[in-house]
Amino acid sequence: MRLPPRHLLIPMIVACALFMENLDSTIISTALPSIARSLGEDPVHLNLAITSYLLSLAVFIPASGWVADRYGARTVFRAAIIVFTLGSVGCGFSDSLWQLVATRIVQGIGGAMMVPVGRLVMMRAVPKSDLVRAMTYLTIPALIGPVAGPPLGGFIVTYASWRWIFFINIPMGLLGIALATLFFENVREHDAGRLDIRGFFLCGLGLAGLVFGFEIAGRGAVPWWGSVALIAGGAILVGLYVLHAGRSFQPIVDLSLFRIPTFFAGVVGGTFFRAGVGATPFLTPLLFQLAFGMSALSSGLLTFAGAMGAMLMKTTAAPIIRAFGFRTVLIWNALLASSFLFMTAFFRPWTPHILIFSLLLAGGYFRSLEFTSVNTLAYADVPNARMSRATSLQSMAQQLAMSIGVGTGALVLHLSLINQSSQTVRPEDFMPAFFAVGLISVASIFFFFPLSRHAGAEVSGHRAAAIAQTTSSARQSGGAPQ
Fold first, then answer.
1. Lower Cβ count inside 10 Å, N or C end of the chain?
2. Taking the model in full, what pTM does it have?
3. Which CATH class is domain 253-468?
């Protein structure tokens, strides 16, 4: 069997790691009641298994770039998969809540290194002219994991033991280690410098406070002031880190990367877009199951349409971006993707399922195109020597964006349910939440407007396509290109 070219094979390997992490982080939510019964715990307490993973992820992501520079990207990527897989095995064999929480923290450490470092390997291996196509392989698992996790988790706990939701990571982890050994280069920086310990604690704990605060907002797990205190504390620590980074010679997170216009637009604009549409995997299943009365399986089959739309995008992203350029695609596609988010607010139990499926399919396509565009643009002008810090910073932004999106959706939904007089959940109760996250998504366009028409042209090929078209027209008319 003939293998794909190396510059396409590497993104596929990294995509498998990303899929494993995304699937694992969502599949557990469906299994929490079964795990609680097995361990003899209150299901509410089992939320610690989710939050401990997220906190571990948030704390250690900032260090991923420095660790890769210091010890080599292939070495760290393989070690991260091993840690993540061993953490999964530990979760599967856990007999108490605190064993589960401890092993989920181990998983989070592995996940914090696995995806950013894998993305770094890809950025250094793939020519910029092929970056759009390579990035599509990373976008698809990010969309499939959240929608496939809940129905798969429901299937496993229904027909097997909940422990298998963790054991299924073993074969994927072993395959990832083998493929990384065969095809990854152990790229490293000769002068990685010293680890910024103070910056690590300020940034990691600040990000953890923000992520945890937004995650529990509106869920009733803690009093409202608890969420506010966590978010405020996290914001203060991040502010202190910004002051620290301005005085540090080699800060653990390089904020000067934001001076690159394409990186700023891709990360900050992408954060707004991702925060808005990132609430979809949380809100849509709740709408279908609580307001429409669907089963978890029926809901999962409908929401999987978004993942199918993402897969359809794979072959069309590069031609679209080459034809129109990043700026045009990012602005108009953000409006299109957000419009499908607004449409979801008008779904009702009597809406034909084929119409719901079609709209979710189209929404998934445009969301995936936007993710591919912002993720690619962010790295378009980043020098190779700073790529490790860029991947760490973007991974932090992505983690924070998802938490903000889910937290905002949960909070607005919670307030909507409080204000309604009926004891039953109605489809109308979800409208404010969908509109709120949709507006956050639309706000991303304000960060794309300042971009040049030819921003990221080396990656998109847009300027080359325009020159070729002008040359062809001039030849046909018998003149010379201007």
1. N
2. 0.80
3. mainly alpha
Question: Which tokens go with 422?
Answer: 């009926």
Cα distance between residue 289 and residue 291, in whole Å = 6
Closest by alpha carbon to 112, among 395, 390, 365? 395
> Residue 154's CB: how many other CB atoms inside 10 A?
19
**Contacting residues for 153 by C-beta, under 8 A, at least 6 apart:** 26, 27, 28, 29, 30, 31, 165
* Contact in structure between 150 and 27 (CB atoms under 8 Å): yes
pLDDT at 142 over 90: no
| Residue 360: both structure tokens together | 């979710």
In the chain, what percentage of residues exceed pLDDT 70?
A: 86
Number of other CB atoms surrounding residue 318 within 10 Å: 22
CATH of domain 1-186: 1.20.1250.20
Q: How many CA atoms lie within 13 A of 292 on its CB side?
A: 24
- CB distance 237 to 206 below 8 Å: yes
Q: Average pLDDT for residues 33-47, to the nearest whole number?
A: 73
Mean pLDDT (whole number) for 27-52: 73
- Is residue 450 within 8 Å of residue 118, measured between CB atoms? no
The Cα–Cα gap between 462 and 151 comes to 40
36: DSSP letter: H
The rounded Cα 336 to chain-centroid distance in angstroms is 20
Of residues 425, 440, 441, 437, the one with CA closest to residue 286: 425
Contact of 64 with 111, CB cutoff 8 Å: no
pLDDT at 81 over 80: yes
**pLDDT reported for residue 47:** 66
User: CA 196 → CA 259, 395, 437, 466, distances in Å?
Assistant: 21, 18, 36, 45
